[in-house]
Write a structure and sequence with these properties.
By secondary structure, the chain is an alpha/beta fold. The chain has 2 domains: 215 residues, Alpha-Beta Complex (2-enoyl-CoA Hydratase, Chain A, domain 1); 59 residues, Lyase 2-enoyl-coa Hydratase, Chain  A, domain 2 (Orthogonal Bundle), CATH 1.10.12. It is 46% helix and 17% strand. It contains 10 helices and 11 strands. Strands 1-2-3-4-6-8-11 form a 7-stranded mixed β-sheet, sandwiched between helices. Strands 5-7-9-10 form a 4-stranded mixed β-sheet. Helix 1 links the parallel strand 3 and strand 4. Helix 1 packs parallel to helix 2, helix 3 crosses helix 4 and helix 7 runs antiparallel to helix 8. The protein is globular, with a radius of gyration of 19 Å.
């Protein structure tokens, strides 16, 4: 997958197969626009289909990870756009509905549907849509200076990109009601206590630690990890019987994959397994 410059973010590749997506409009606290979201869906689609990508890592430039939607009314810069301009928008109830279903909600859906593992390195403000994207990721590391919250009610708006669903999954019903209705914005330590982030690190260690985690994940048995990721997310919403059926079907694939044979041989030989030979080829 070739690095690209797109609307609102840059992409780079780190070995072995880590796609780093950096939101890069720091003057606006990396606030999002419709063109940015559409380009983001496109790059995530490419990442899903590209076997050389193993892990996707999100972070932000400047003082913010992603501080919600751009409410300034400024016309977004399309000079680096991957696709033509978007026509229509929030000018009518139908336009709002279409914009949410086709663009805003599709971003988090694309993240959740990736079978590659995802990491959010939260370097600053992760508010509203930024918080939702972080919660849609599989792992979240936060810098000590980070601030996380759902700021929608401060503007009389709703967490329309799926933030309510994601917060319920992380905080439970009562916790999500409290977090959203009281318009809470918490620091990294409180976010960790609540279970919104996996780990808090010093600011200067955020990217080294996030990349170390991404490399750990990228070195693991990718086929089994991708199958397990899908099974875990499905199991969160399935019955016991459905979860067993799903994991059995996936195990019928992974048990006969070269990585499983390599894992057994490595255990027998008391050495570190060398997974992903097929991907390396």
């Amino acid at each position: 997958m070739e690095p690209a410059t797109l609307t609102g973010f840059d992409t780079t590749i780190e070995e072995p197969g880590i796609l780093v997506i950096t939101f890069d409009n720091p003057e606006a606290l990396n606030a999002s626009t419709a063109p940015m979201k559409r380009d983001l869906v496109e790059i995530l689609t490419q990442a899903q289909m590209d076997d050389s990508v193993r892990v996707v890592l999100f972070t932000g430039a400047g003082p913010a990870f992603w501080a919600g939607d751009d409410l300034s009314g400024r016309k977004p810069d399309r000079s680096n756009a991957a696709v033509p301009p978007i026509f229509g928008g929030h000018h009518s109830p139908t336009g709002t509905y279409n914009g949410l279903r086709v663009i805003s909600q599709t971003v988090n859906t694309s993240v959740r549907h990736l079978d590659k593992l995802t990491v959010a390195a939260i370097n600053g403000f992760a508010i509203q849509t930024g918080l939702s994207l972080a919660l849609a990721c599989d792992f979240r590391l936060a810098a000590r200076s980070a601030k996380l919250g759902s700021g929608t009610l401060r503007f009389g708006l709703l967490p329309d990109e799926g933030g309510h669903y994601l917060l319920i999954q992380h905080l439970g019903l009562a916790g999500a009601i409290d977090f959203m209705m009281r318009k809470r914005i918490v620091d990294a330590e409180e976010a960790h206590r609540l279970g919104l982030v996996n780990e808090v690190v010093d600011d200067e260690q955020l990217m080294p630690e996030a990349l170390a985690l991404a490399r750990e994940l990228a070195d693991g048995p990718q086929m089994a990890m991708r199958m397990l990721k899908r099974s875990i997310y499905l199991a969160a919403e399935q019955t016991w019987a459905h979860a067993l059926e799903d994991i059995a079907a996936r195990t019928a694939v992974t048990d006969h994959h070269p990585d499983a044979r390599e894992g057994g041989l490595a255990f027998r030989d008391k050495r570190r397994p060398q997974f992903n030979a097929e991907l390396d080829r």
